[in-house]
Amino acid sequence: MNPKTLQTLEYPKILARLANYCDFGASRTQALNLLPTNDLETAQNLQAETAEACRLFTQNPQISIGGARDLAAIVGDAARGLILEPAHLLDVKYTLVAARNLKRALGRLEGDYPRLKSRAECLPPSLGLIDAISQAISDDGDILGSASARLGDIRRDIKTQHQRLRRRMESMVGSSQVSQHLQEAIFTQRDGRYVLPLRAGAKGKVRGIIHDQSASGATLYVEPEGMVEHNNRYRQLQLDEREEERRILAHLTRLVGEQSPTLRGMVETLADIDLAFARAKYAEDADGIAPTLCAFPPHGAGRHPGVTLRLYGARHPLLPPGEVIPIDVQLDPQTYAMIITGPNTGGKTVTLKTVGLIALMAQTGLHIPADRGTELSLFREIYADIGDEQSIEQSLSTFSGHITNIIHILEEADGQSLVLLDELGAGTDPQEGAALARSLMTHLLEKGITTLVTTHHPELKAYAHVTPGVVNASVEFNLETLQPTYHLTVGLPGRSNALAIAGRLGLPQDIIEKARGDLNPAELQADDLLDEIHRQRDLAQEARQAAERANAEAKEMRKELADRLRGIEDERQDALARARQEALVGLGPLREELQQMRQFVEELERSKASEVSEAYEGFEGIEEKIAEVEEKASEPVARQTTEVPRLRDDMPIVEGCRVYVRSLGQRGEVQSLGGVDAEVQVGVLRVRTKVADLEYVSGGQPASTSKSPRTTVRKPSTVSSPGMELDLRGQRVNEALLNLEYYLDKAFLARLPWVRIIHGKGTGRLCNAVREYLQKHPQIKNFERGKGGEGGDGVTVASFEE
User: The whole model's pTM is what?
Assistant: First the structure.
């Protein structure tokens, strides 16, 4: 990608923001050196990887690369044979631990993360270095005595020798023959050797070696003659310790050096994964989406390059989110050039930079700040001539600087390039500048190059109107506030507001009228026509907004009606359930009386066998009727679905849309449609239901791209179905059991035959706690693990007592 374009569009600032989200040096370096790709498959894979990371952070926000370090310099030193310091060896250990933990964490995930898991599979095992370094070096960076048997022996000897030295020195300090010559009754060290602080006047009174004297010269530091051998022994042991530590570090360094290619690859893989995580974090903060990237079609007979450019709600990524005005930039299938006109500071240049930066971000794998549905082609090159290009050193004026850049662009650009030109034809005589601008636009159109330009030349408005493949666009200006609105309108050229602004600012009216009289009548007529077009457009927009508000109110009323109907149906079910329960309760005493009568008849059996037989037949008839009543009272209450008529402009139920299943009280995604029936994916369950039982979820997206919130059990105001599924993942055991208890009570009262409880696998603590609770629950008949398509050991399906 053209380096000058990257600087002009401020692409390095995007990379600097991305680098702030990286967790260690290697990924930050990668982020700062990223370049957009012009390979469609690579860009699409990067976008898919960013989307995976976004989904991963939605479900597992705590995941990260841990304590990984950039080992490039450390591994390089080890490969060259330079002995590594303990702190550097600990960096190697911590990075290996981080790689191991990340590989395990991604491997245990149940979600669909093929690209991230594939990268994690490339992370190496511990290579034996974790144990080797842990056994030799403490977390504080100290070499442990257990690092080698010899080092342990040396340190024990040092300790013993040190104790002997101190005892002998203490004995000498306590001796009356020596203490009378001491400056103080202490001993100290000089150059690692134990000495006595002798008064200068007592020089020669204690035989030994003078190592130092105080600044005043009043004190001499003398090593007693009898302590020389002991100090020599102590010093030699310290040297032996240092040598053994060096040997241990050299051994560990050799192990690191032998694995240097593997360690370099591990750091690169960690950096790639962390960079994907950084792109996801950036997308979350920028409210970005994954754009649809399109390939250029094979060049046809016409000049049109087949470019796709549809940006909806696009926002400049470097402007504050709360202040930037979203814009829509669309080129229809017949258009591949846009001429933008409007007042200064109205947002023309920002529009060019927004388009260019969004294209660069998309080709880097970054999600872009725009609305869903955004599509754009993958450009082979992007060229931008924006800003003041004058150079005193090169004797270039503003006009000369622009022309120099445009010459380079004309030499390099082709049909798969995007060209952005700011203030085309400016900086010279207006008439000549306009003629040159028209000629340049014609040349770019003939070469089939996608082009967006800004200009103040009115001649280009007419050029865009009559030239196939070109569309006018304008940034708006509020004459009441004398401020630009920054809204981009595609299809209409910008209006000339100079005379109107001058009048608002107080310029005498006679001067304005005289200026108006000097203008070409055709230009005045064109401005009046534009004013009328803008006025009619504003009226149409207001009418559309009024219609949208009315539609929203109708939808709200429809939703309220549906809620009321559901409430009425719930009350009907409760009433029927209570009536049947009362019927079952009333049958109890009747059955007891029947049993007593049967016992009485048995007592008469011996005396009147024929009469008893007739009585038995009567009892059997009564029992059959009681059984029929019990059977009818035990039948589940069928829920009736009342279809609320849909608004004609309501969203239709189609495959892939998100819907609310009224009978289950759950949301799902439509998988297939067949006549009046539909197949809906609700969590891990696929159910068949009537289309009339479904309600379109406004703003819903397919489940594969939306962020699904966790199920939260809330206390409803009436007894209604809490749904067939409860998600306890991410909750503590105590919290999960409280939610489970309340959910089971509501599900039992709602007459659900069974429920699905999602607890995940994890360590197994939550799974065991849930199943132990189900084992003791009085309303649970039995339970079992989920089947293969339901989540396996991460799910428990529980059935209620009838």
Answer: 0.62
